[in-house]
Amino acid sequence: MKILSKKEIKKIEDQIESVYGSDKVLTGFVVLSTSKEGKIWITNTDALKLDLSSLRVNAVGLYFCRLDKGKLRLSIEGAQIIAQTANKNIAEISHDSVWDYLRGFDITTETKNLDENTYVLVKHKEDILGIAKHIDGKLHSVLPKSRKLISLTKPDTFLP
Fold first, then answer.
1. 151: buried, middle or exposed (CB in 10 Å: 19+, 13-18, 0-12)?
2. What is the pTM of this model?
3. How do residues 42-51 score in pLDDT, each as one tens digit?
């Protein structure tokens, strides 16, 4: 893992601002990168004060995003952090679509003004559920397999 320079962090923040309208979301965090997967992790400065020399550490902090063909692909937690100040590329989904989204199916959205071929934030009421890739008016699920619901039947009381 390597600590990113201010210039590298600024590049990530600029991309976040251009896509989601959020700025300075990484202020106050130490930003780290894994060389193999291109994953970006965030942590506070206290985590770097620990002596990790005798341990094999794969990651420190919270998985925030990764670079996917030059575009930031946020984690679920990264999407929730960004959404606090985001003002564009937020797809609102209906109560009925939440179940399909959480199972990993592609869904349609009525939200206008979403950038085409971009990772957008997926929102239901006040909850940020994650991200999806917006292509041709559909939201293509990019939920990791480990985060998908696997139940075959929808419970009667899924959401209030």
1. exposed
2. 0.85
3. 998 887 777 7
